[in-house]
UniProtKB/TrEMBL annotation, chains A, B:
<feature type="binding site">
    <location>
        <position position="316"/>
    </location>
    <ligand>
        <name>substrate</name>
    </ligand>
</feature>
<feature type="site" description="Transition state stabilizer">
    <location>
        <position position="73"/>
    </location>
</feature>
<keyword id="KW-0456">Lyase</keyword>
<comment type="pathway">
    <text>Porphyrin-containing compound metabolism; protoporphyrin-IX biosynthesis; coproporphyrinogen-III from 5-aminolevulinate: step 4/4.</text>
</comment>
<comment type="subunit">
    <text>Homodimer.</text>
</comment>
<dbReference type="Pfam" id="PF01208">
    <property type="entry name" value="URO-D"/>
</dbReference>
<keyword id="KW-0210">Decarboxylase</keyword>
<dbReference type="InterPro" id="IPR006361">
    <property type="entry name" value="Uroporphyrinogen_deCO2ase_HemE"/>
</dbReference>
<keyword id="KW-0963">Cytoplasm</keyword>
<feature type="binding site">
    <location>
        <position position="202"/>
    </location>
    <ligand>
        <name>substrate</name>
    </ligand>
</feature>
<keyword id="KW-0627">Porphyrin biosynthesis</keyword>
<feature type="domain" description="Uroporphyrinogen decarboxylase (URO-D)">
    <location>
        <begin position="135"/>
        <end position="151"/>
    </location>
</feature>
<feature type="domain" description="Uroporphyrinogen decarboxylase (URO-D)">
    <location>
        <begin position="19"/>
        <end position="28"/>
    </location>
</feature>
<feature type="binding site">
    <location>
        <position position="147"/>
    </location>
    <ligand>
        <name>substrate</name>
    </ligand>
</feature>
<comment type="similarity">
    <text>Belongs to the uroporphyrinogen decarboxylase family.</text>
</comment>
<feature type="binding site">
    <location>
        <position position="73"/>
    </location>
    <ligand>
        <name>substrate</name>
    </ligand>
</feature>
<dbReference type="GO" id="GO:0004853">
    <property type="term" value="F:uroporphyrinogen decarboxylase activity"/>
</dbReference>
Length: 344, 344
């Protein structure tokens, strides 16, 4: 691997410049991807190792980012354990959501080689072709459980929360099942060649700290413990989770991902200094003029590089409306602006 | 007025027990309201002073809460200034959203007596009938602007944010127009008899502190300055705004409303001790068992009453699925549990 500054930052080691990558860097913001999507659905791409590797590599070539992330969807391991889903315009839709203990008991064990051989093959191709680290990933238990219980995206997660409060036995049975699935899925990706892992908890910001600590943290701790023997860095990311940072820190990941709502200096105060941070430009900013993007990026880098262990990213995924040229320019700016500033 | 403990808490004066009311306490969680809605739309109710007063009073009688809030919708003053809207299942829909400076310039001046005489009449009825304070309210400029620009509810507020970044001239022209409208609307409610005011910024938690300070705070400051001569307390409420509390504090309101994501003790640290707090039970908790509601309520009250100036509320509006009996029980519990604890 030629460029390991992303991995060094994950480990809070000195870097030459601030590493940068973008959540959802492969996707509809790229003309080439939109062309491919005229012929293939998202799920068809993930089933096709050559094509999936191509889509994964594209933004690395075009934007000169310091990491690739496997092109996939957080729902991918959910179908093999027994909950088939469709990806529609508004997000994934599950026809038979989890409603009872029996529904949880019916879920299958997850087997990486049997269930997702094409993911293994994709990662194997990428390991040979990439000159930057490959990030494997999984959805986090709360976010996956919310899709599985609500049957799709939800604004208020009412069914999910009600299950937590009314039926903690069903909730924790589902958490246990997801814990095993997620650990096996992440292990499988590292065994195939992934150099780092990110766990996406996109919806967990809907919970109070009280509920996070009670219903989610124990499972997150066991997952991060369960992947610690893999010896690759892991990133724990959430949206709207500024208030949860002290608890997420307890879960034990190497890097905490933060969104644009919390200034990095505050995130550092809450998370402590013995964890790296990743973030946190509002991806909506990328739809505005370059001057506004640059102003905000300077503030983020100035705060981020106050100590080793900082990765520049967005606070959430790239919006489809984003111009890819802006992403290229931003990655370049992050490298250039930080080059004279980072602590060696 | 027999019961003024809500107003005393707003002013950080000693109270006998912690005052409590619930955002959206009048609404679909009440069987009587659901009956009324079989005959009248929400907008028809707001146009009918006798009926609207009845709906406003109902939860005060049933739940024994310490304040009434005018039954209305944050969009009510938007139609008179020139943007007609429909209330549909997913929220308000505006047929001709704001897209240009010309669209802003076309907006009319707002005149309370001419435009909303039925709101004045409703408040006049309520002033006579209520034995608790009546809270008048308005949407805040960002939240109203988001509806006006997006044309309805939005997950990511992309059109709104893009207008802020690309066309600050249009954005600030709209902010100025909303500032005048909101001040006039709130004045009109107090002149008719409202005893307190709440400004709802339901969506502003989507902004980074950087953007809040640049695009929203100046207008919020002028609004709160503009209603200060009215000599009634005002509450500034947002959802997901824990990170914005230090800035919202600068806007100058008497009370800051906080949602369930931020523990009250943290909110106090960020907002300072010279402002009252209102909140912050997750309304989803009300769909769970009483034991869980009570556990969380104790924690909130224990933190809230550490100093004068605390009003118990939810962190957002009551969900329609909520059992009214639970709201009654909760109001009673807040009074009982706090009675031996509050500082005299």
């Amino acid at each position: 691997m030629k460029n390991d500054r992303f991995l060094r930052a994950c480990r809070r080691e000195p870097v030459d410049v601030t590493p940068v990558w973008f959540m959802r860097q492969a996707g509809r913001s790229q003309a080439e991807y939109r062309e491919i999507r005229k012929q293939y659905t998202l799920i068809e791409i993930t089933h096709n190792p050559e094509l999936c590797a191509e889509v994964t590599i594209l933004p690395v070539k075009q934007y000169d980012v310091d990491a690739a992330i496997l092109f996939s969807d957080i729902m991918v391991p959910i179908a093999p354990i027994g909950l088939p889903f469709d990806i529609r315009a508004g997000g994934p839709v599950i026809e038979t959501p989890i409603r009872s203990k029996a529904d949880v008991d019916k879920l299958h064990d997850f087997d990486m080689e049997q269930d997702l051989p094409y993911v293994i093959q994709t990662i194997q191709i990428l390991s040979k072709e990439l000159h930057v680290p490959l990030i494997g990933f999984s959805g986090a238990p709360f976010t996956l459980a919310s899709y599985m219980i609500e049957g799709g995206p939800s604004r208020n997660h009412l069914k999910t929360k009600t299950m937590m409060y009314e039926h903690p036995d069903i909730w924790f049975a589902l958490m246990d099942r997801l814990e095993k699935t997620i650990i096996t899925y992440l292990e499988g990706q590292v065994n195939a060649g992934a150099d780092a892992l990110q766990i996406f908890d996109s919806w967990v910001g809907a919970l109070s700290p009280f509920d996070y600590e009670t219903y989610v943290l124990p499972t997150m701790k066991r997952i991060i413990q369960g992947i610690s023997h893999l010896a690759v860095p892991n990133i724990h990311f959430g949206v709207g989770t500024g208030e949860l940072l002290p608890l997420m820190k307890q879960a034990g990941s190497d890097v905490l991902g933060v969104d644009w709502r919390v200034p990095l200096a505050d995130a550092r105060k809450r998370a402590g200094h013995d964890v790296a941070l990743q973030g946190n430009l509002d991806p909506a900013t990328l739809l505005g003029p370059w001057q506004e993007i640059e102003r905000r990026t300077r503030v983020i880098i100035d705060q981020g590089i106050q100590q080793p262990g900082f990765i520049f990213n967005l606070g959430h995924g790239v919006y489809p409306e984003t111009n890819g040229e802006i992403l290229r320019k931003l990655a370049h700016f992050v490298h250039e602006y930080s080059s004279n500033k980072v602590r060696q």
